[in-house]
Design brief:
The chain is an all-alpha fold and 130 residues long. It is built from 4 helices and no strands. The longest helix has 31 residues.
Length: 130
């Protein structure tokens, strides 16, 4: 066959996104975001070791609007990655492979991550998390 007559391989433009594929991609993205977020933790820890002035600067950066947004997104990524990891542990045990179970557990992970992240965030921001 000539190169022009070869059939096209399936690609993302052909398929309609399904919850399982979207959550798989989100799991990878959240893992990458968590790895990048470790740099923020390292920054905060180094500022803590650097003395009061360095720590005050770090608190100002992390307490700013963009800093709080990054911290919230990091918390949301953690909650999602954690809950989806538990979902995968059930799959490793052979539980939850029926299509309806996959859909329900996927939505449970999304909703659970949003609720857990919001609850933790409110607790941290109001000081009741201590």
């Amino acid at each position: 066959m000539a190169a022009g007559n070869r059939p096209l391989s399936p690609h993302l433009g052909i398929y309609r996104p399904q919850i399982s594929s979207v959550l798989s991609i989100l799991h990878r993205i959240s893992g990458i975001f968590l790895a990048i977020g470790i740099l923020g933790l390292a920054y905060w820890l180094s500022a803590l070791a650097g003395g009061p002035a360095a720590y005050a600067d770090a608190v100002a950066v992390l307490g700013s609007g963009p800093g709080k947004l990054a911290l919230f997104l990091w918390l949301l990524a953690f909650c999602y990655h954690f809950l989806n990891g538990i979902r995968h542990l059930f799959w490793d045990a052979g539980i939850g492979f029926e299509i309806q179970q996959v859909i329900r557990s996927g939505w449970a992970v999304l909703i659970g991550a949003a609720v857990l992240a919001a609850t933790l965030w409110v607790g941290l921001m109001t000081g009741s998390g201590a």
